[in-house]
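Regression test case RT-17, inverse folding.

Input:
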């Protein structure tokens, strides 16, 4: 098969030359382009129409006036962005998982729940005494705050027994904010 193709190729080159082969390829490409040109024109027109429709829709959106919310609706939407108190146990599990990842021991903790009648939020405070390296404490605190956006760090107290020690004694207090039901 390969020899047959080689013989035909050499005969064709001897008969019409390289320029003739190039001309035949160009002629075939021109015929193919002429056959595909109407479809290409339709595609270009459709893309231009879609682009114009998107531009018109964007212009109409920019001209549309935003719906004015009352201050009570804005406040309700803000409060609804916070998780429910039922998520508290899962949040604490996540805090302990982050501590494990940073090799921070949370041996004990003090927990306090504050809930005023009629208040929009329930506040849950967790205070942890920690002993460890500065980088581990910093990474732990940062990861808790990044993982749980409804948590604030209210206190971070660092102390060291002596100047040569690399280990720190720390007290970290996180406050978890939940919406009232």
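Golden output:
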């Amino acid at each position: 098969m390969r020899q047959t193709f080689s013989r035909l190729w050499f005969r064709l080159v001897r008969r019409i030359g390289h320029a003739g082969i190039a001309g035949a390829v160009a002629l075939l490409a021109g015929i193919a382009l002429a056959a595909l040109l109407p479809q290409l024109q339709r595609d270009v027109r459709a893309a231009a129409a879609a682009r114009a429709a998107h531009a018109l829709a964007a212009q109409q959106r920019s001209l549309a006036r935003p719906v004015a919310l009352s201050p009570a609706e804005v406040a309700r939407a803000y409060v609804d962005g916070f998780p429910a108190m039922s998520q508290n146990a899962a949040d604490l599990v996540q805090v302990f998982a982050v501590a494990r990842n940073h090799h921070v021991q949370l041996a004990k903790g003090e927990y306090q729940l504050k809930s005023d009648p009629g208040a929009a939020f329930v506040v849950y405070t967790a205070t942890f005494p920690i002993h460890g390296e500065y980088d581990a404490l910093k990474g732990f605190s940062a990861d808790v705050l990044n993982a749980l956006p409804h948590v604030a760090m209210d206190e971070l107290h660092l102390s060291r027994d002596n100047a040569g020690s690399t280990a720190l004694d720390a007290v970290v207090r996180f406050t978890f904010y939940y919406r009232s039901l």
